[in-house]
Amino acid sequence: LITDSNDSVRDAAVNALGVIGPPEAAGALDTLVKSLYDKNSQIRATAAWAIGKLGDIAAHKATKRLIELLKDNFWKVRTSACIALGYMGENVEPSPYPILVKILKDGSINKVVVC
User: Fold this and answer.
1) What is the pTM of this model?
2) ω before 96 within 30° of 0 (cis)?
């Protein structure tokens, strides 16, 4: 379902994995990371949220892309990526802190979310 041509079907499938959460959804991590590259911004936002629900389980595979999504054009993608990085804890590599400091200064994501 995550590869369906219909955006709503893909979004619902990604959302379902987020609702299922760990440890059951951990086996779908690679698929969720691919969804972070979806052309549809809503699906990217949902995928970031779902990956965040996996917490540190996802850190080694998703951190770099989530950091990239902090610069996405759609505010919901930026916010979901920021929250997902927070769920992963402080030991993620590469560190998102330099860009988060920049975001605090430029206001591209709500400051309460970043903190």
Assistant:
1) 0.90
2) no
Q: By three-state DSSP, how is residue 99 classified? A: helix
What are the backbone angles phi and psi of residue 32, rounded to the nearest 5°? -65, -40
Compute the C-alpha angle 75/39/14, nearest 5°.
80
Q: At what angle do helices 7-20 and 41-54 cross, to 10 degrees?
A: 10
Backbone φ and ψ of 21, nearest 5°:
65, -170
- Among 80, 89, 79, which Cα is nearest to 58's? 89
What pLDDT score does 38 carry? 97
Under 8 Å between Cβ of 104 and 111: yes
pLDDT in tens, 56-109: 899 889 999 999 999 999 999 999 999 999 998 887 888 888 888 888 888 888
Tokens of 18: 């987020």
CB atoms within 10 A of CB 50: 28
